[in-house]
Design brief:
Number of helices: 5
Distance between the termini: 59 Å
Radius of gyration: 19 Å
Strand content: under 5%
Helix content: over 70%
Number of strands: 0
Order of helices and strands: HHHHH
Amino acid sequence: FPSHDMDLGLSSSLLIYLLSGLEMKANHLRKFALMMSEISYSLYLLHFPLVLFIYVILFRGGQLMFGVQSFLVYVFLLGVLVLLAYMFWYLFERQTERLRVVFEGWLTFRK
């Protein structure tokens, strides 16, 4: 278990812990949190295949050493994953509730 993997895991855990205690007074943070909650399922579905694809294509089985460059790569790839999850949500999940109502009405009418 390489130490730089543990460093990255611990620093990410610390960041999540520190962010969880913040109050969202700013409207833009509230909007960001709402958007992230809307796309969370899409992000859940897409993150593993996309990360695996990126890992195989870009890193060819290698690893980046923990540092400023690898952190910037991580932030960039995280942004790409969130953007792709948003696009997936926008194309497929956005109308789920409306379609559910339509199909429930149709099924009720058919009885």
